[in-house]
Write a structure and sequence with these properties.
The chain is α+β, with helices and mostly antiparallel strands. The chain is built from two helices and five strands, in the order E-H-E-E-E-H-E. Helix content is 26%, strand content 29%. Strands 1, 2, 3, 4 and 5 form a five-stranded antiparallel beta sheet that branches.
Length: 125
């Protein structure tokens, strides 16, 4: 007799984000960005990489501090709408006004966020 196993879980999406800053208090800018993302997504990151310093590339500017975070978010609606919702929240955080009046948007960035990948998480059996 064949057995059927039902797995009851809420489908979640892995969202990997790369964050960088090369102006002002770079580490503080990154921490503020994570706090704003936490508010936007209603959760904390599941994983955070170490912070690395990299030279600016493609323009003359100060070195960047960069790191990656993983958010596991519940899937809402259809995949296209959900992806656009994530993009909208990320862009809001990235473009949120900074406290320093001299942080104009140029090639150098007080806060930069890149969506690296999103993927459905399936239970491993």
């Amino acid at each position: 007799m064949k057995k059927t196993i039902m797995v009851n879980y809420m489908e979640r999406v892995n969202v990997y984000l790369g964050l960088g800053s090369n102006l002002g208090e770079r580490e503080l800018n990154l921490l503020k960005a994570v706090n704003l993302l936490d508010e936007a997504f209603g959760t904390h990151p599941e994983r955070i990489s170490r912070i690395v310093e990299t030279p600016s590339w493609g323009f003359d500017g100060p070195a960047f501090l960069n790191f990656c975070v993983l958010y596991r978010l519940p899937r809402t609606g259809n995949p296209e709408d959900h992806a656009m919702e994530i993009l909208h929240k990320v862009k809001e955080v990235e473009e949120k006004p900074h406290t320093s009046s001299d942080m104009r948007r140029t090639a150098s960035l007080c806060r930069s966020i890149v969506i690296l990948v999103t993927a459905s998480s399936e239970p491993s059996l």
